[in-house]
Structures are given as C-alpha cells and as structure tokens.
Design brief:
mainly alpha; Multidrug-efflux Transporter Regulator, Chain: A, Domain 2; three-stranded antiparallel β-sheet
Length: 94
C-alpha cells in the first residue's frame, strides 16, 4: 500500500500575490546580475562563440577546450553557452 502525505496551506489572495511577486523579482535580479556582470566585465567587449574563435584562430574546438582547462584562453559561461571576450582572443594573438 502506498501512503501519501498532503499538506494544505491557506493563503489570502494578497499574500499569494506577494509571494509570487517576491519570487519572480528575486529570480529576475539573479538573471539581471549575471547579464550585467558579463556586459560590464570589460567595457565595450564583444563576446564570441567557440565556433567564431575557432575559425579566427584556426584551431579546433578541442584545442579551445584544452586551452580553457589550462587557462591559456579563459572562456565565460553564460546560460550554458561558452563565450570568449574578443579582447582576450586578440591579446592571445599578439
């Protein structure tokens, strides 16, 4: 026999709205902070994808992965995507 426990909570309409608003506001602040940190990491920096950097440097994606592990060319992680600052890529070229 499967036993289930249920808990019923009682909220007023106003309390429920406040709970939802606070939760959404907190999550939006987290997202805004992540985006803001990337945009202000270096002024006027452009982000490049792994594929763009691979073509620009004429190296494979595996090489980029290895360079990131060895801190030769460090990437930025944004929403599960791997991106590179254009300034960092050009600095490595010189």
């Amino acid at each position: 026999m499967i036993e289930s426990n249920y808990r019923v909570l009682e909220f007023s309409k106003d309390d429920f709205e406040k709970l939802i608003r606070n939760t959404v506001a907190t999550e939006l602040q987290k997202i805004y902070g992540m985006v803001n940190n990337i945009q202000h990491a270096k002024p006027h920096s452009e982000l490049l994808t792994r594929e763009e950097v691979s073509k620009l440097l004429n190296v494979s994606l595996v090489t980029l992965f290895n360079w990131d592990k060895k801190k030769v060319l460090v990437s930025k992680k944004v929403g599960g995507r791997v991106l590179y600052l254009r300034e960092d890529v050009y600095a490595k070229l010189n």
